[in-house]
Amino acid sequence: MPRIMQTSSKVLATLKHVNLSLGSREILRDISLEIYAGKVLTVIGPNGAGKSTLLRVLLGLQAVDSGEVSRIANLRIGYVPQKITINPLMPLSVRGFVALAGGENIDAVLDDVGVLHLAGQAVQSISGGEFQRVLLARALMRKPQLLVLDEPAQGVDMMGQGELYEKIAQLKDEHGFAVFMVSHDLHLVMQKTDQVLCLNQHICCSGLPEDVSQHPAYQRLFGNFPDSGLAVYTHHHDHQHNLHGDVVKPCTTHGCNDKESCGHG
To answer: How far apart are CA 25 and CA 21, in angstroms?
Structure first.
C-alpha cells in the first residue's frame, strides 16, 4: 500500500485492494492507498485511467465490487469539482454562492482565498481562475479535514494555475487538512506534493515526486518530451513530460501491479 513515511500523521482514509468494474469494463484494479492529515496526495494518469472514479469511491459516491474503503468517523470533506454549471440568468453573487455551502464567516473565507473583492459580483461574471478560487472558498466553508480536488485548474491560465496551487499549499499548511487531488495534466502536480500516485486502472507506481518521475512505469506512460518550460517537480533531470499523459503502450517494467496486462514475463 502506498504510504507517506511519517508516523506522526493521522490516517484519515484508507482504501484496501479496491476493485471496480462498470459493465464489462474494468475501472479500478487492486487499489490500496492511505491519506494522511496535513499531506498532499496527487493522482495522475491518462484519460480513462479511473482517476475520477477513484475520487468518487473516496467520497462514498461510488460503491466498489470488492475491497475495503474506510474513513475516520465524521470525516469533514471539502470538495472542489472539476466543473459546475450555473444558470446564467440566476441572480447569484459570489457571496451568495459560497453561502449555499452553509457555515459562518463567509467574508473571512473569501479573503483567505483572495477573492473578497469579488463578493458582490455576479458569480457568472468572474474569470475562470477567480471562479476556481470561489469553488475553493465554498469547499473551505465546511472546515474540512480532507480537501478533495478534481482537476481544479480547468479553465485557468498558466499564471493562475501556479497561484492557485500556491494558495492551496498555503491553506493546507495553515489549517492542517489533507489534500487529495486528481489531475490529467502533469504540470498541475505542484512542487509541494508529498506523494504522487500514477494510475492506469491499477497503480503503476507511487511515491515521492522525484522517485515517481524517474520510475520506468511512469516514463513508459508519459514518455520523454522536449522542454515545455513547465517546472513539474523539484528534482532535476534533462527532460520534461507529456502535458496530456496519453498512453502510448502498456507498461513493460517491474513497478506495475498487473503482470499480464503490462507485459511482464
So the answer is: 5
Taking the C-alpha atoms of residue 56 and residue 49, their distance in angstroms, rounded to an integer, is 14
Cα-Cα-Cα-Cα torsion 114, 184, 19, 252, nearest 10 degrees, comes to -140
Is the separation of the CB atoms in 171 and 112 below 8 Å?
yes
Q: Which residue type sits at 256? A: C
User: What's the rounded Cα separation, in Å, for the pair 190 and 205?
Assistant: 18
pLDDT at 219: 66
C-alpha distance from residue 96 to each of 88, 92, 129, 137, 229 (Å): 15, 6, 18, 12, 39
**pTM of the predicted model as reported, rounded to 2 decimal places:** 0.77
Burial of 227 (0-12, 13-18, 19+ CB in 10 A): exposed
Nearest to 38 by CA among 212, 193, 256: 193
Model confidence over 73-87: pLDDT tens digits? 999 999 999 888 888
Q: DSSP of 86-101, one letter per residue?
A: --TTS--BHHHHHHTT
The β-bridge relationship of strands 178-183 and 40-44 is: parallel
5 burial type by CB count under 10 A (0-12 exposed, 13-18 middle, 19+ buried): exposed
Residue with cell 478560487: 133
Q: What is the DSSP string of 44-83?
A: E--TTSSHHHHHHHHHTSS--SEEEEEE-TT--EEEE-S-
